[in-house]
Structures are given as structure tokens and as C-alpha cells.
Amino acid sequence: MAEAIDYSIFVARSEDGLAQMSLAVDGIDCAACIAEIEDGVKALPGVVRARLNYSTHRLTVAWREETSPDRVVSQLEALGYRAHPFAGRAEESEARHARWLLRCLGVAGFAAMNIMLLSVSVWSGNVTDITPETRDFFHWVSALIALPAAAYAGQPFFQSAFRAVRSGRLNMDVPITIGVTLALGMSVLETALSQPHAYFDSAIMLLFFLLAGRYLDHEARRRTRATAGNIAALRGEMAHRLGADGVPVLVPVQALQPGDTILVAPGERVAADGVIASGQSSVDESLVTGETLPRALKAGDAVYAGSLNGEGALHLKVTAGGENTLVDDVQRLLDGALAEKGAYVRLADRVARLYAPMVHLTALVSAIGWLLAGAGLHHSVMIAVAVLIITCPCALALAVPAVQVTATGRLFRAGLLINAGDMLERLAAVDTVVFDKTGTLTLPEPALALPRGADRGLVGLAGRLALSSRHPLARALAPRADGPAIEGVTEVSGQGVEAVVGGAVVRLGSLAFCGAALPGDLPAGASLIALRRGAQTLVMGVEQALRPDALEVVAALKARGLEVRILSGDREAAVVPVAQALSIAHWDAGLKPADKIAALDRLKADGRRVLMVGDGLNDAPALAAATVSLSPATGAAVTQAHADAVFLGRRLAPVLAAVDGARVAARLMRQNLAIAVLYNVIAVPLAIAGFVTPLVAALAMSGSSILVTVNALRAARPGRKDEATDATAPAGGDARTLEEAAA
What we know:
Shape: elongated
Membrane topology: Multi-pass membrane protein
Keywords: ATP-binding, Cell membrane, Ion transport, Magnesium, Membrane, Metal-binding, Nucleotide-binding, Phosphoprotein, Translocase, Transmembrane, Transmembrane helix, Transport
Domain HMA: 19-84
Strand content: 15-25%
Helix content: 40-55%
Strand order of the largest sheet: 15-27-26-25-16-23-24
Region (Disordered): 719-743
Radius of gyration: 33 Å
Organism: Xanthobacter oligotrophicus
Structural class: alpha+beta
């Protein structure tokens, strides 16, 4: 009895009301399956999207209320495919399938070796003095070995072909099955008629090489899946939740809810997002922030699922559990990117749809043509068999998805989360990079600069007022508060905040609002914020520090032939020092969102393809208008929603990695498409002309799929220098002030 699965627990709801589920689909053995599965699932009422990734065998389906997850699974079964949730069971199923392929390969190899021993005797005897009786005996012994061996070893092809035909469709295992069956059938007929030639050896060797190719292809695709990885699995499967009596109880991570307290032991992965309730330790947050150095934590600090705890035990108050942690958001970004299809993928899919009917038609026409040309039935059938086997769209279908999966995994390891399937193709064509300043070229955390001899009491008072302000500059001042937030604070829109403290009116905000004069001993380019208490005034500067590797990354981008610009909403005095420190000649300051879009439109009108990198709320329209866009993980949520990718950590290195990775991926996609097309252009005419045996056809077909997959794995190589330059972004370094960078 089959195990019942409640698929509803694997369904996620999106903001637009769509239900979405990812399934691992078994039985996908060729590129023609892509169109069959996607079209079949889309035929269900309410299904708005179905995307199958051939490399990962992951089907992502989105639907409205008209359908249900059970109906999706039932539809796949009706099409001849088995499906289960894309989780740990997917890997288990893949492992079982690999072992089965290996057993079939072993049977085919053992049978082929024994049949070849008999065949060598027949071949040599046919040119010497073998008697017909001896030759027929060897042929029948070969048949006794070949037929049961083929029945077992050919199961991967025969079962797939049977499922396809039963559901009224064709896949590429149908012509393989026809080819092997014809070869065996012709051999039995030749043996029964006491003819000098039989092809049991060729049929079994054909199966052996087809299975070898399929097993190697399976393992190569497993490696491409491993480069992207199942990120959510890094948080672990179980957690120790503390009960009311303080005793830890082992529970699945899906059972964790906000408000729960969990115990994180030394060396253990954090299972949920939360705040440390008690304990001290250091954690490796490289998965979340991209920083490789451990971060010291104490009570009150936030920590994210997937982080690796160091030497101390922690009690963690859960703020996000189940499927709502940051690491799950990361996984959804990766899944969404892999589910989308770029222009290259759509082209390959359209071509693959036509392959199955064209293969059968080409083989039939070839056989009829050779018969009409006077060739015998045996020769004509063998040519048809070769055409059936050599013509396969698998290489074409793997050409782009394999690169996409591998490159996505490489960029994730570099701290970049792709949010759009065609992002790599668009990014590879970019010739201009436009940066926002605040929070993008500079770090999101501002630093406070005080004039010489500043009154500490006024600074502490300013910090208390800043606790009630929503202005970004207040974030730098709030940590200086010397007490709790002041009650009764009034915010004056666009000016600042004010309150009555000790009978005196206290104001915090702009220089004009506080009636303060511009000081002369604050850093040039710093944003200014003033405090007034009675007749006393204090003017403070909020200074932005450059990202640690900003100078090197900008230089490396230029070395790759890209023009770098700044479009900022900040005032000119704050933008000029950044542009000078980074040697950026083209910059604009004081821009509103509409001005940024207008600037991008002018660049695009000049034929430029623009990468926009920004983090603020005002950058969201510009990110949407650019050719391709990136946003730091510290950016506003709406900004990340409009970005094609999000990068982690304090460094700009992921931007450079994205450019290099996209160029490598685009080149490998073009190479793979060229390999797949060139293979078919050369191989099919040779098979039709009779220059290719079924055995050689099997080698060629398997080799083409393996070749494009191995070529795709080159996209996983880190630190590749793809341009004629030695400029690279540094791996280390601390944040630098503008003065240090300029020096």
C-alpha cells in the first residue's frame, strides 16, 4: 500500500494569493518531458504557472483556488510521472535511482563481455572455416544471454517509453526502445534463418553505453544541484525547545513558533531566527552576512537560522520559526530564480518540443529511402536504428539549465542571491554600473562625528531625543542616549523633533530648525544634525564610511571595461568626497526618484545597458527601470523586491562577482548551445547516410549530454579571471573613511 502524503503542508501562499508548491518529479529522462509536464499541469483549471528545471527535476507550480496540490500530483501520475515534495526525500529518490542505473549498467556490461567472446569466434570463423551449425549455436547462446539481460538492463528506457506511450505522448526513450527492440528482433530473425550475421553484441553494447551515459549524466546533474544546495537544510532538522519546567525537548524545526525558547548547544546550527535570552558565545554567520569572522554575541543580540554556534551554550527566544526564517527566504529566492526561464532556456525548450516527432519521422524516411535505393531490409533497419538513437535533444535541454544552476550556486557562495531567472543573461550584457551613495557605496550604519570639546550632557540629551525620531541620521545618535526616551516628543515634519525638558524647549533636527550656525571643525561632506536647549546649541556630523572594498571593486569594474557612475539623492557636498575618493568622474547629486529614472532613461537612449545598485526606498523605481539591478540585504524591503538580486555582507565584492559570474555563465550557455546544435548538424546527416552504427550512435548521444554538463560545471570555479586584467577585489579590509580612501 502506497504511503499517503498530505501535500497541503508543503504549499506556500504568496502575497498575490497564489498557492505554490515545489515537487521532485521522477521519470524525467529526456528534454521532451519538459513540455509534456508543463503543458499537462497548466491544463488544470486555476494553474497559472508551471516551471520544470531539467537539471534539478524540480517542478514549481502556482495555482488559484480552482485546483489543489493533490490534483497536481494526480495529473502528473496521469502523464506517467511520479512526484513527491522536493525535500530530503528527493535526494533519497535520486540515490535509489542512481543505484538502480548502476545495477542495470552492471548487468549490461557482464552480458556484453560474454557475448563479445562468442561474437569474436563468429567474426573470425565467417572469414575462415566455421560451420553453419557452430555459428548458429553461438548465435543462440548469445540470444539466451542477450534477451534476459536486455529485458533487465533496458528497464530505464523501456519503462519510460511505456509510460509515455500509455499517456499518449512521445519522449526520447521511445526511439531508443524501438531501436534496441529492432536490433534484437532482427538478430533473432537472422539466427532463425541461419544467416551469417546477428547483432546481439551490438544491441547489448548499445544498452551498456546508453546506460553509462545516463548514469554519468545523472551524476553530473547531481553535482550541479549540489552547487546550489538545499540552503534551508543548513539550519538543521531538529531543535531543543525548552518547556515550562526548563527541560529541553527535541522537536522538528517546523514546530517552532515565535515566543518559544530553544537551547543552542556549542557547535550546533541555530534552528530559528531569534534574540539571545541568556548566554554568551561567538557564531559563524557567513551564510547570512557573508562575513567569515565569527561574531561575539551576548544577551539581547539577534541571531539568524543557519548560523553556526561556537563555544558557548545559548538560550534563544524565537522571533521567526517554521518556514519564515531568513534562511527560508534565501531558499525561496534561489528556488524562484531557478524556476524562471531566460531567453536561452525558452529557445531550447521550443526546439526540444519538436524533437520527438521529428526523430521518428526522420528515421522512417531514412529507412524508406534506403529501401527505395535498393538496400536490403537489414541495412535499412540498422540505419533507422542509428538515426533513432543518435538524435537526442537532451544536450540542448541541459545546455542552459545546467549552467544556470551551477552559476547560481557559485554566486550564492559569493554572497549573492539571485531573484530573477534571466538576470545572468541581462547582467552579462551590461556596460555601465550606476551606484547609489548612501548605504550602497557607503556602509548602512552611519558614524557620529562630534566637534572638539562637545558637551557630553548635550550629546546624551540629543541621543534621548533621537530615540523618538524616525530620521535616518538619528540612528547614529541614538546609541549616545544617556537615559530612556523623552516623553511628549513632537515631530515637526521635515525639520526635526522637539520636547520640553526641565521647563525648557529642546529641539533636535536641521540647523535652521535649531537656529545653529555651521561649524568649521566637522568632516567635509558629513551630514549635519543640531541640538538646541535654551541658548545652548550643538552641531554634530553624521559621516558615512565607505564599504571596506569599495575602492578596489570600483577599480576592478573599470578594468573590465565598465563605466561607473553615481546617482544620489544626497546633497552635493556629501557626494563629491565619495566620488573623489573612488575616482568616479560621472556623478549627480540631489536627485529625486523621478530624476534617477530620467537619468537611466538617457543612458538607455544612448544605447547603454545599465546595472543599478541601490538600497533606499527612493531607489526602488530606478532599480525597476534599469537593465538589471542589485540591492544590499540591508536595503528597504520594497527595494529588494524590485532588485534582480540581493547581496549579503558589508562588502561590494558580490557586485564584482555577479558581473564576472554572469559573463562566465553567458559564455558557457552560448558554448553549450553551439555544442548541442553542432552535434546534431553533424551527427544526424552521418547517421542518415549510413556512416554511423547503432553502437557509435549510442556513444555520440550519451557523450553530447555529458559534454555540455561537464562544460556547465566550469561555471562553479571560484576566483576565475575572466577578463584580460589582474584587478581583483580584496578578500579582506576594514571600512575606511573618505579621507583615508582619498589618501
